[in-house]
Amino acid sequence: MNKTLDLSSLRSFVAVADIGGVTAAAGKLNLTQSAVSMQIKRLETLLGRQLIARQGRVIELTVHGEQLLDYGRQILGINDEVWNRMTHETFEGKLAIGVPPYILYPHIPRILKEFSDAFPRVEVKLISTRTAELKEEFAKEQTGFDSDHRIRNCQGRRKAGILSAEMVLPARQQPNMEKAAIAAGL
């Protein structure tokens, strides 16, 4: 008889495994520590296997936990992709982001990964050079994108350590990019 995995419990398990602790995973998931612990216990009960070995505050995956982690990431990835494609507004287009090299690491790669995961149909072009050159490039609108997808008004405004830019799309494709940026954590 086939049973169905609880995706919330699976998401908690993967978060704990990836982050390395229940408290930090709970914070990322916006759940209480006890809720995350209960979800993992529920998953262990459902599968009839111990998934996590706890040694005080140190958490290690058991052999079964390691197996489930690989499958769990795949299952959650497919679930999230289906959910995003079927329920969210479609944000499409191209976005150029100019960042001086001194603020590139360590945050920009993580932010771009999160943005890409949240908005897979937005092509992001990262330009990393001196601030003066960035201003010149954006002033000339030489972003490498066609005229329907120009970036305008790059004022060098700082928000969470990155420069922000306004995306200009044809009227038929006007998503709320501010909403998109907020949802992506920008």
Counted up, domains total 2
CATH H-tier superfamily of the largest domain = Periplasmic binding protein-like II
> Average pLDDT value?
75
Number of strands: 8
Task: Give me the side-by-side strand order of the main sheet.
Answer: 1-2
Keywords:
Arc Repressor Mutant, subunit A, alpha+beta, 2 domains, 8 strands, two-stranded parallel ribbon, D-Maltodextrin-Binding Protein, domain 2, single chain, 186 residues
Write the layout of secondary structure elements.
Elements: H1 7-19, H2 22-29, H3 33-47, E1 52-55, E2 58-61, H4 63-87, E3 93-99, H5 107-118, E4 122-128, H6 131-140, E5 151-152, E6 158-159, E7 162-163, E8 166-167, H7 177-183
Parallel strand pairs: 3-4
Antiparallel strand pairs: 1-2, 5-8, 6-7
Helix pairs in contact: 1-2, 1-3, 1-4, 2-3
Summarize the structure.
The chain has 186 residues and is α+β, with helices and mostly antiparallel strands. The protein has helices at 7-19, 22-29, 33-47, 63-87, 107-118, 131-140, 177-183, and strands at 52-55, 58-61, 93-99, 122-128, 151-152, 158-159, 162-163, 166-167. Mean pLDDT is 75; it is low at 143-186.
Walk me through this protein's architecture:
By secondary structure, this protein is of the alpha+beta class. It folds into 2 domains: 7-86, Arc Repressor Mutant, subunit A (Orthogonal Bundle); 93-183, 3-Layer(aba) Sandwich (D-Maltodextrin-Binding Protein, domain 2), CATH 3.40.190.10. The chain is built from 7 helices and 8 strands, in the order αααββαβαβαββββα. The strands form 4 sheets. It has a two-stranded antiparallel ribbon with strand order 1-2. Strands 3-4 form a two-stranded parallel ribbon. The protein has a two-stranded antiparallel sheet with strand order 5-8. The longest helix is centred in the middle third of the chain and has 25 residues, at 63-87. The protein is elongated. The protein starts with 6 loop residues before the first helix and ends with a helix.
